[in-house]
Design a protein that fits this description.
The structure is a single chain. The chain has 145 residues and is of the alpha+beta class. It has helices spanning 13-23, 30-38, 82-96, 111-119, and strands at 4-7, 42-49, 52-62, 65-73, 101-107, 123-128, 138-144. It has one domain: Gcn5-related N-acetyltransferase (GNAT) (Aminopeptidase). Strands 1-2-3-4-5-7-6 form a seven-stranded mixed beta sheet, sandwiched between helices. A hairpin with a 2-residue loop joins strand 2 and strand 3. The protein starts with a strand and ends with a strand. 29% of the residues are buried. The mean pLDDT is 96.
Length: 145
């Protein structure tokens, strides 16, 4: 499948919101993504097939560090490597920006995401106990760029 990755625009927010609603137990409100679009450190990339947005990646590049905030794929398009492509795209952008470290937090129970991050070179460095609203732990993962 031909996936095009490009920076998100305001016109993409409805699709991002739909994917967010399908992907997380406590989805971020649309206003969060509106603010991310104007935050100088934040980037949101979308993955498209034809004219349809099927996934997004929200990340920050700050002080030579890449921080992945969220990668989400619409349920109809999961398990096809789109998240992996978005992650690789962000890592490449971070490398160009001079980043040397990538970080993220992921739910302990999100085994597909943990496996994707591990394949990209991320390693668990510590656990944030009861990090999420439902008391699930977060695994903090780091990778060198």
């Amino acid at each position: 499948m031909d996936v095009l990755i490009a920076p998100a625009t305001v016109a993409d927010l409805d699709a991002i919101d739909v994917i967010e609603q399908h992907s997380f137990p406590r989805p971020w409100p649309r206003s969060t993504f509106e603010r991310e679009l104007i935050n100088e450190n934040a980037r949101i990339d979308v993955a498209r097939i034809a004219d349809t947005i099927i996934a997004f990646n929200n990340y920050w590049i700050v002080a030579h560090e890449l921080h992945i905030l969220a990668i989400a794929t619409h349920p109809d398009h999961r398990r096809h490597g789109v998240g992996r492509q978005l992650l690789a795209h962000a890592i490449a952008a971070a490398g160009v920006a001079g980043c040397t470290l990538a970080t993220l937090e992921v739910r302990r129970g999100n085994l597909p995401a943990i496996a994707m991050y591990a394949r990209a070179g991320f390693k668990v460095t510590h656990v944030r106990a009861r990090y999420y609203h439902d008391d699930e732990d977060a695994l903090v993962m780091l990778a060198t760029i």
